[in-house]
Design goal:
The chain has about 280 residues and is an all-alpha fold. It contains 14 helices and two strands; from the N terminus they run ααββαααααααααααα. The protein folds into two domains: about 1-95; about 100-280, Delta-Endotoxin, domain 1 (Up-down Bundle). The chain has a two-stranded antiparallel sheet with strand order 1-2.
Length: about 280
């Protein structure tokens, strides 16, 4: 009875929760390839998601000062509904618009300056470490320059020629680089000196964040068979390096790259990591 009474007394909040659930579930189903048929040029799932998000946005609008006080939401509740409407919309945009290989390749190329800067930081970090720790760090990260250059080259090649064969090369390179970074993280945690370990982890994590973002982009345009093959080639799983990652640092890098709020960046980081782990990475 308390549940029914709560729904009756808070209809807008209850409706908002239901719409958020519908939009979220629709997004997950769309990501898994469930369509429930076509609707115009899209699918039934994306149509349902769009309608739920639109209704949530309307529900979140301020009813105005002319409405009786008893029928108006508090400013705090209205603000929360508005924030949830924005979050639901932003979360579903990739599923509503779809991702093309060209878009993904261009996004990877757009990450190039940030990636090159992060790799350059790794190269210079050895000078900040204790003399006993520097050689091991250099050995663990020695392949970053070549791997990052190859990844960007493959993305540019796919941008120029979006064929299945070039996509396969891009898939192989992003997994290769991701494995190098994961292995380097596991080597870095063996550094005993606290200051050296902090410097080393921070430098590698920046590269790791960008590579995971690229992996997520490539994964979004890859077939289930290709993703399974990529995951099978991933011996050092993400779950093994998670304990040494700082989610706030990752979110700051993503937010800075896309020029978006930290809240959205945090969700994107968590979503990318979750999707990768579920796929077997």
């Amino acid at each position: 009875m308390n549940l029914i009474s709560n729904i009756w007394n808070n209809p807008k909040t209850s409706a908002a929760g239901l719409l958020i659930a519908i939009a979220t579930i629709a997004g997950v189903l769309s990501q898994q390839g469930v369509t429930l048929g076509t609707a115009g040029t899209g699918t039934v799932i994306t149509l349902v998601c769009a309608i739920a998000t639109a209704l949530l946005g309307l529900l979140a609008q301020d009813p105005g000062t002319a409405a009786p006080a008893a029928t108006r939401l508090s400013s705090g509740t209205t603000a929360k509904l508005g924030a949830w409407a924005l979050i639901a919309l932003l979360l579903q945009l990739p599923f509503l618009s779809g991702c093309s290989g060209i878009t993904v390749a261009q996004d990877i190329v757009n990450w190039t300056p940030t990636l090159q800067s992060a790799v350059a930081t790794v190269d210079s970090t050895a000078a900040l470490l204790a003399p006993v720790d520097a050689p091991a760090f250099v050995a663990a990260t020695v392949g970053f320059d070549i791997a990052s250059n190859l990844l960007v080259t493959q993305a540019k090649a796919y941008l120029a020629n979006p064929s299945a064969s070039v996509l396969a090369q891009l898939q192989n390179q992003v997994v290769t680089f991701q494995q190098q970074v994961n292995a380097a993280l596991l080597q870095t945690v063996k550094i005993v000196d606290p200051a050296s370990q902090q410097h080393a982890l921070a430098a590698i994590q920046a590269v790791s964040t960008i590579v995971v973002a690229m992996l997520s982009l490539v994964q979004s345009v890859s077939s289930k068979t290709a993703v399974a093959r990529m995951a099978a080639d991933s011996g050092v799983k993400m779950a093994m390096v998670w304990p040494y990652m700082d989610e706030e640092t990752a979110a700051r890098i993503v937010a800075g790259h896309y020029g978006e709020p930290m809240e959205l960046a945090r969700m994107q980081v968590m979503q990318a990591e979750s999707v990768a782990v579920q796929a077997g990475f």
